[in-house]
Amino acid sequence: MAAGSAEHILAIDLGTSGPKVALVTTDGEIAGFEVETTGLQLTPDGGAEQDPADWWRAVSAAALRLLARRLVPPESICALSCTSQWMGTVPVDRDGNHLMNAVIWMDTRGGRYARRITSGFPRIGAYGAVKLWRWLRVTGGVPSRTGKDSLGHILYIQNEIPDVYRRTHKFLEPMDYLNLRFTGQMAASYDTITGHWLTDNRDLSNVRYVDKLVALSGIDREKLPDLRPTGSVLGPVTKEIAREFGLREDVQVVTGTPDTESAAVGSGAVRDFEPHLYIGTSSWLTCHVPFKRVDLANSLTSLPSGIPGKYMVATEQDIAGGCLTMLRDNVFCADDELSAASAGGGSPSPRLEAPEGTSLRGPPVGGDEGTSLREAGRSGDGVLETFNRMAERIPPGSGKLIFTPWLNGERTPVENHLVRGGFFNQGLGTTRAHMVRAVFEGVAYNTRWMHEHVERFVKRRLDDINFVGGGAGSDLWCQVHADVLDRTIRRVEQPRLANARGAALIAAVALGRLRFEDIPERTRFTAAYRPNPDNRGIYDELFGEFVNIYKNNKEMYARLNGRRQEKTP
User: Fold this and answer.
1) What confidence category does residue 122 fall into, taking pLDDT thresholds of 50, 70 and 90?
2) What is the rounded CA–CA span in Å between residue 100 and residue 50?
3) DSSP run (H or E) holding 422
4) Which helix (H) or strand (E) holds 491?
């Protein structure tokens, strides 16, 4: 089909830091994109919230700006497809109005209620054995006792904000909330609903709620959304959206997928056992598999993927690119008295107004375009490039400085919301450049820890790893991962847009314009990074000590960060 007559999909990727909106052909070619940022509110009690109105403002602004560029004929847009951060909760009333801020994937306030419904005797680990068996047998997983999944969020609202719970008509995932805004329909797909741990996932052609699990959770069944098959057409955009965005009224909205699933498709790793690595605010390393299996000890399971009829290994590193954001905002460039003094002033430098509790002032480093250190911003260089230049001056191993990236606890291969990050083995000669490189390497050590358990889970070597997300924009980080994992890393073209590309490709398949088996040949790579054998010794040594840091200090973290939180109410 000639370029001028190609069909296009408006793809929306709502990440934690904000949306990327792209126009993508049904063959996966990106015609253009726009980016917006959104706020994040963190509270001392473990809360992590975002305003759905801010999501919609940012999505609309980016989409309208993109469409106004007239990169493609408006009539060529045949579908709209969303992907988003996963395991978040938006309570909406009967009219579709959100009733409070969204509780997102970082939030732990529902942990004590999750522990209450999962406890019992006899016990396997921390779980009641009978309850554990019921969940694992049909869902393939079990509610997190940290409260970070959707079920934990709903339990938090039910117990601590009962008025909101009472007025809620449906609890929606972030992606399903966007679909509601575009179509007027309240529904969830087979894969977005997985984090509620209330569905039978054994037959991927007929995922359904399990009454006994719903009763065990204590949540009212009528407050859960109706289910639609993964990769199905939800319906056309509303007339209001068609007018506002300048789209045809027959533009179809596809159910879409959470970010993990869309990244897998967008990375081109759609065949069984083809791995992909994503680094944004968080990180994961996963692949599709032809089986349903659980490794409870290492927080691994296979769950419904974005490809109908397929499972995918579920993993997550809680904070990855967000570690560099923390280093930028809270250590190197904090708006405080020290920064003002170093700049020659007498008071902190001005900052944008933000809600109390907001932690990340800008988009995550390695997550979105336009982020910068104050100094880098003045020179026009992006912050990731600045960090790269600093880290490249330091030899591999960072002078044996080790950084642990557990800033918000960890999920895989250990689920521990009480563990915390930090720098270990710092000396008088440690510089900021050492710290930057140590963060790059620390995230890679955690990736290796996860990768080793994923390989055991799938019982085969996972090599030629497709790398996507903002972190893949760093040549240094690509090479560090190749060296630490001792595996070849392949950077996918336009890695920051992999999620949006994946959402578009899923829509193209849903509309019959493409087949999933066609996607690998339509995936291009800009570079391949092979392990440097000269660095194997130092990285093997430091990785071993990285794991020892966790083993030797996990009890200390428990004492420091919340023995009291472990008690059930």
Assistant:
1) very high
2) 9
3) strand 422-424
4) strand 489-492
Mean per-residue pLDDT for 171-193?
Answer: 97
> In this structure, which long-range contacts are made by residues 126-131, counting pairs with CB atoms below 8 Å and at least 24 apart in sequence?
131/216
Q: Decide the pairing of beta strands 187-189 and 226-228.
A: parallel
Average pLDDT, the chain: 90
Pairing mode, strands 311-314 and 288-289: antiparallel
Q: Are strands 77-84 and 252-258 parallel, antiparallel or unpaired?
A: parallel
| Contact yes or no for 416/459 (Cβ under 8 A) | no
- Dump pLDDT digits (tens) for 486-497: 999 999 999 999
Higher pLDDT, 402 or 566: 402
pTM, rounded to two decimals: 0.88
| 169 contact partners, CB below 8 Å, separation of at least 6 | 92, 93, 94, 186, 223
The DSSP code sequence of 86-150 is SS-BEEE-TTS-B-SPEE-TT--TTHHHHHHHH--SSEETTEEHHHHHHHHHHHSS---TTS-SH
Cβ neighbours of residue 200 under 8 Å, at least 6 residues apart?
A: 138, 139, 207, 208, 209, 210
**Do 276 and 256 touch, CB atoms closer than 8 A?**
no
- pLDDT (tens digit, 9 = 90+) per residue, 351-395? 323 333 333 334 455 443 333 444 443 333 467 889 999 999 999
- Which helix (DSSP H) or strand (DSSP E) does residue 188 occupy? strand 187-189
Dihedrals phi, psi of 6, to nearest 5 degrees: -65, 150
Report which of 308, 268, 247 is spatially closest to residue 27, judged by C-alpha positions.
268
DSSP 237: P
Q: What are phi and psi of 526, to 5 degrees?
A: -95, -20
Which amino acid does the sequence have at 82? Answer: C
> pLDDT tens for residues 32-55?
999 999 999 999 999 999 999 999
Amino acid at 225: P
